[in-house]
């Protein structure tokens, strides 16, 4: 895998992780969502007008475009496991921005993911 292809994959993964964090920020502004037949439209409108949610959806679209480019250049059996980097970025971002706990077990899982991706990238 060359540097350009790796860059498309990593940028797509980072945009996908950013999308998750923005969606979480948007839902924090809305609060817990409890849909009923009476409130589905107003809740949907409230969610759809949150700037972080709009930003998150935009990041998703951009990540899909980059992902398509990456898949045109590399085997899916190489590219797809690289998406697991998103778990690492999202966990760190959730800890940093939202104060979510990162236990010792989660840290160990992050290390396993990083080692796996490093081995995969070298193949």
From TrEMBL:
Transmembrane region(s): 43-71, 78-98, 104-121
A GO BP entry: lipid A biosynthetic process
Name of one Pfam family that matches: EamA
Molecular function terms from GO: transmembrane transporter activity
Highest taxon of source: Bacteria
Domain EamA: residue ranges: 29-121
Compartments, record wording: Cell membrane
Keywords: Cell inner membrane, Cell membrane, Lipid A biosynthesis, Lipid biosynthesis, Lipid metabolism, Lipopolysaccharide biosynthesis, Membrane, Transmembrane, Transmembrane helix
InterPro entries: EamA_dom (IPR000620), EmrE-like (IPR037185), Small_drug/metabolite_transptr (IPR000390)
Membrane topology: Multi-pass membrane protein
CC terms in the record's Gene Ontology section: plasma membrane
PANTHER family registered for this protein in UniProt: 4-AMINO-4-DEOXY-L-ARABINOSE-PHOSPHOUNDECAPRENOL FLIPPASE SUBUNIT ARNF-RELATED (PTHR30561:SF9), SMR FAMILY PROTON-DEPENDENT DRUG EFFLUX TRANSPORTER SUGE (PTHR30561)
Protein name in the entry: EamA family transporter
Organism in which the protein naturally occurs: Rugamonas fusca
Upper classification of the organism: Bacteria, Pseudomonadati, Pseudomonadota, Betaproteobacteria, Burkholderiales
């Amino acid at each position: 895998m060359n540097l350009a292809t790796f860059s498309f994959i990593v940028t797509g993964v980072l945009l996908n992780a950013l999308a998750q964090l923005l969606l979480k920020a948007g839902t924090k502004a809305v609060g817990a969502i409890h849909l009923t037949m009476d409130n589905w439209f107003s809740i949907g409108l409230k969610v759809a007008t949150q700037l972080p949610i709009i930003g998150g959806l935009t990041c998703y679209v951009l990540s899909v475009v980059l992902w398509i480019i990456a898949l045109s250049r590399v085997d899916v059996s190489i590219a797809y496991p690289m998406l697991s980097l998103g778990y690492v970025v999202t966990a760190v971002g959730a800890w940093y921005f939202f104060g979510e706990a990162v236990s010792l077990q989660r840290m160990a899982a992050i290390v396993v993911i990083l080692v796996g991706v490093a081995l995969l990238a070298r193949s």
